[in-house]
Amino acid sequence: MFAIDAHLDLSMNALEWNRDLRKPIAEINEREKGLTDKPDRAKGVVSFPELRKGNIGLVVGTQIARYVAPDNLLPGWHSPEQAWAQTQGQVAWYKAMEEAGDMVQINDLASLEKHIKLWHDDTSNDNKPIGYILSLEGADSIVTISHLERAYNYGLRAVGPAHYGPGRYAQGTDATGYMGSKGHELLKEMERLNIILDATHLCDDSFWEALDHFNGNVWASHNNCRALVNHNRQFSDEQIKELINRGAVIGGALDAWMMVPGWVRGKSNPKEMNCNLEVMIDHLDHICQIAGNTLHVGIGSDLDGAFGREQCPYDIETIADLQKLPALLTKRGYKETDIENMMHGNWLRFLRNAWK
Questions:
Q1: Any residues with CB less than 8 A from the CB of 28 and at least 6 apart, and which?
Q2: What does the alpha-carbon distance between residue 162 and residue 171 come to, in Å, rounded to a whole number?
Q3: Could you tell me the CA-to-CA distances from 47 to 116, 128, 323 in Å, in that order?
Q4: CA atoms within 13 A on the CB side of 77
Q5: 47 near 21, Cβ under 8 Å?
Q6: CATH number given to 3-354
Q7: Which of 356, 345, 355 is nearest to 158 (CA)?
Q8: Alpha carbon of 260 to those of 39, 163, 186, 224: distances in Å?
Q9: Which residue ranges make up each domain of the chain?
């Protein structure tokens, strides 16, 4: 079944992890054997061949570059201008992949429909380009509000105002506090440009403030449920209800610490913690029960988002294993139409509405 993944850090993996994503995943992992600079070395699951194998023809691909003030201990850049430059390198990588024929940017309704038709009709082509919608995870790199239009002009179509910790425009995971006037300016310009607000990573204060001040299209690309894993990174039932009221789609994430309670980074094991794709369905089902339908959930895997097989469901060898979901959802009693909604239909409906 055709699938859409609403959150993949492709450019980060290419440029910071130095992975040639055009290669088979086994080759990428083999080349990383013996490297110890990151805990997920030689444990990656994402590559272009695996996306194609899994019939994942459309993804939301990120740019990401955090600014950190002198008192902020998180990794990041020491000026917004440096962060902007980092994101421009990431854009250059996406463009290089387009020139190589491996990717194609999807930025309006016409390009979306053309791409979906290609993946539906051309069943003989095993090397179809992977469509990507460009999203910015954390807005720290937007040096001035005028930079947002510059980003829109090269294809940016979604923005999450914050990532981890305090941000220049909003407060993120593990932080508290509000957006303030600069955040309101950002939201106003996003609304003018019809840029999607990604509510993922906003702390509770900034979440409610953002939804109060933004009248455009809202989604949550990769987020799970606080009722199942009690952490501020997750959405409370009240937040889920508000997103449903706004017509949002929420992408289920596959980072194990967000899936199962009690995960200890660097110590817990997916098998021992019983972390598998069924757990992802638990989170999706929780949202469906709140909504009373299957119209507000999708996939936003975040696979290889600074973690690999050591911290994702044990029944995923590569991202192609997302194709196990339809059978698992069928066992849960979901009908074919529901499963199509979850695998791709909800994201497509959202985009067609946002870009009409």
A1: 19, 20, 21, 44, 47
A2: 6
A3: 20, 14, 15
A4: 20
A5: yes
A6: 3.20.20.140
A7: 355
A8: 20, 21, 34, 10
A9: 3-354
Residue 165 C-alpha from the chain's centroid: 18
What does the DSSP 8-state code read for residue 164? B
319: Cα separation from own chain's centroid: 14
pLDDT per residue rounded down to tens, the chain (356 residues): 999 999 999 999 999 999 999 999 999 999 999 999 999 999 999 999 999 999 999 999 999 999 999 999 999 999 999 999 999 999 999 999 999 999 999 999 999 999 999 999 988 778 999 999 999 999 999 999 999 999 999 999 999 999 999 999 999 999 999 999 999 999 999 999 999 999 999 999 999 999 999 999 999 999 999 999 999 999 999 999 999 999 999 999 999 999 999 999 999 999 999 999 999 999 999 999 999 999 999 999 999 999 999 999 999 999 999 999 999 999 999 999 999 999 999 999 999 999 99
Residue 22: C-alpha distances to residues 2, 58, 62, 106 (Å)? 20, 16, 17, 19
Torsion of CA 43, 44, 50, 55, to 10 degrees: 110
Is residue 235 within 8 Å of residue 212, measured between CB atoms?
A: no
Q: Give the global pTM.
A: 0.98
Looking up tokens 């020139």 gives 99
**Tokens encoding 168:** 């220049």
DSSP string for 51-90:
HHHTTEEEEEEEE---B--TT--SS-BSSHHHHHHHHHHH
Closest CA to 314 of 350, 345, 268, 356: 268
Sign of CA pseudo-dihedral 99, 102, 106, 107: negative
In DSSP terms, 105 is beta-bridged to: 132
3-state class percentages of the chain: helix first, strand second, coil last, to nearest 5: 40, 15, 45
